[in-house]
């Protein structure tokens, strides 16, 4: 549970930082530093990944009708018809998505762009964390 609080906390800070940066959008905008700030926190996903496999195994084993009925009731329009397993996998998909996002930014930056080196470094460090989560 501690890792979820950590993950949620640094993402709230990251979102606030992005919200402040977006109104200043321009070709020279530097977002690499925003990612450099969160990269160290991405390692907190390691605990989540470890626990995820245990939770999914438990859900697979739990076949009591009342429990299955609760799970089925959670899959509704308010939840975009996603199951609990769909929501549980989302944090695990986050780190690779950051990597793909940074790769895309890296491709669009021209040589000499003030953010090119920082984005490349954030991408490399994010990939190192993602590799450690496997």
List the helices and strands and how they pair.
Layout: H1 2-21, H2 32-38, H3 45-61, H4 65-74, H5 84-108, H6 116-133
The tally of beta strands, per DSSP, is 0
The helix content, as a percent range, equals over 70%
Seen as an oligomer or otherwise, the chain set is single chain
Q: Roughly how many Å is the radius of gyration?
A: 18 Å
Instruction: Work out the helix count.
Output: 6
Characterise this structure.
Helices cover 72% and strands 0% of the residues. With 134 residues, it is mainly alpha-helical. It is elongated and about 60 Å long. The model has no long low-confidence stretch (mean pLDDT 87). The chain has helices at 2-21, 32-38, 45-61, 65-74, 84-108, 116-133. Helix 5 runs antiparallel to helix 6 (116-133).
Q: Tags for this entry?
A:
mainly alpha, 6 helices, 134 residues, elongated
Summarize the structure.
The chain is mainly alpha-helical and 134 residues long.
